[in-house]
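Justification of computing resources. Each target in the renewal requires a structure prediction run like the one illustrated here; the chain below, 209 residues long, is used simply to show the kind of job we budget for.
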Amino acid sequence: MSPSQARTVKPTLRLDARIVPDRRRHKRFSLPLLGRFMRANKQEFPCRLNDISPGGASLMAPVDVEIGERVVAYLDEIGGIEGEVVRVFDGGFAMELRASQHKREKIAALITWLVNREKLGASFGRRHQRIAVLNKTSTLKLADGSTADCSVLDVSLSGASIGTDARPPIGDVVMFGKLRCKVMRYHDRGIGVQFLDIPDPEALRRYFG
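Resulting structure tokens:
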């Protein structure tokens, strides 16, 4: 390749490297996940995710919200997101996310995993595969300092399903044994939590195996 050809090609490569990631970062992906959202007045309602990107999300909701209203949503398999309502439509609203660069990168990684896990097969999904646990008990320490006995229903590197009568608020940080977790959802036997610090796989296996 001559020097003149190199000068022609290199700027094009630099332009592509700069533009392509930006387009991907704002592309919306359809993910029909369930969750709950909290309005500015602290009222909570169920919701369903239509689509999401690291910069925004569209949710179906049973109540009307206001443009500019600050909302916080907790979505299955994604966790907590927050931002401002930028658009309303029949049966839902779109929000612009307010998040640090680190949080946006985590959301992008989760979206990538959720969208591609079926196409990439079981070997990809096994990183966060849930494992049923029999007759294992632990302790749940709530945000107010109280504790409750609990049973471990299933566990993965990203979270766990816990059998308990306690119903800490969605979004509360609790201690599940020695693991710091965020309460993500309720189910008929207890709660689902997301680990805030991904535990060491071997330690997790020894503890719950």
